[in-house]
Amino acid sequence: MARIVVVGAGIGAMAAAARLAVAGHGVTVVERGDTHGGAVGRRVRDGFSFDTGPGLLYLPAVWRDLFLKTGKRPLEECVELVRPADPVVEHRLPDGTRLRLPGLSRGATIRAVREALGGDTAERWTAVLGRAREAWEVSRRPMMEEPLTARTDPAPFRHDPYPAVPHRRGLFRRPAPADDLLTTATRELGDPRAVAVLTSGLWDWGVNPADAPAGALALPYVEQTFGTWYPLGGTRALADALYARCLERRVDFRFGVEAVAVAEENGRASGVEAADGTVLPADHVVLGGWSPSPGSRGGVADPLREPPGNAARAWSRATLLLALRGRRPAGTPHRTVVHGATAAEPPVTVLQPDDPSLWPTGEHATAVVTVPVPVGSGGALPAGTAERLEAAADAVVPDLADRELWRELRTPAEIERDTGAPGGAIPGPALGGGVTGRAAAPNPGPLPGTHRVGALAHPGGGLPHAGMTGALVAGLIVEGPDWRGSY
């Protein structure tokens, strides 16, 4: 039995801890804060609860696999997953168009697009999603299901998996250039409204469509194909269930312990040094999230490499939490997206979950209003951000002026405080695609005996990807460096 110390109690770190513990190892998790979950946080006030991280769940198969392999109770017995009632999302476009999209029904989605945006746009939408499916099938295994190590074939990371579409230049049809996602979507969809709708979900993954390869269209394909899910109690309920599963597997959690360095002996990790000088001995060290690198003593940058691309190009978010009196009106979409003047402008998303567990009584409701913001402003919001959030809330939440009990604005500074992420950065998933692609950090750390999980590690940020980091690192530790996936 190996001694393993996991630094951080984020979602990826706990995923690794549970899998390593069930393999028979002794696992200790050290966390500088006083709770688990990392970016999957919760704000509780006056009987109201709000997710402060992601508000929806994609690819629940990642978590079904984890719970299946780490205990007797499956995911569905630990977390009540529901599909929000149709329409899953309503898009409000600047020209006044409203597009309501269902979940898990390709035919119904195409009908809704046709009715709102026209038949030609619906045909183009179908073709683009078909090519996005090809990108997903090509990239799924190397970009999500296999570890990133020195043995990894670099080709999938260098090339955009989105298939080139011939288009006419002069007298001849030639393959389209390898453009960024926004340029590709604009050329292939034609209608700027469809471009805004299809690319808007990328922001939820921490991806700017203007700074991403076309292959990232696989992300909206995943949403439309595998559905959007909501854990009753919020996504924090998933973090709570994962924490409980770790405790069942006898994982030892130590909160309020800040790791400042990885101890080294004979060129290999030998433990973790805490801020009080204590060293926890270990045969393997798993670094979660923005953990210190070997010898960095509290720094977040790895001295042996540049920051991974998914961190250097990350965005953050501003969030307005609304506590409301009165029930959520029947037929209210779970998610409403209020679009800006162009698809290049980050949209505002309003979540109004139908979940009484979030409210003090059945005569209340909540709304969470978010917009992506750049990292690097010292925690301050760009000019006009608060006004955009308030305007979207006024437009979407019925009778807001009469129903509002209180509101609370969260900025990147709160995200940095809660997660340790500089500037409140929320890294996106790894994406293949040359200049516009981005790679997360390799799963093995720079020092033998160390491994990385969480949003900075391959395959990057987002709930399903973070969960996969735990599976990949557990596989490498248990099976060895030649292991290539499916642990």
Automatic annotation (TrEMBL):
UniProt protein name: NAD(P)-binding protein
Cited InterPro entries: FAD/NAD-bd_sf
Pfam families given in the database record: NAD_binding_8 (PF13450)
Region (Disordered): 417-458
Superkingdom per UniProt: Bacteria
Biased segments, Gly residues type: 421-436
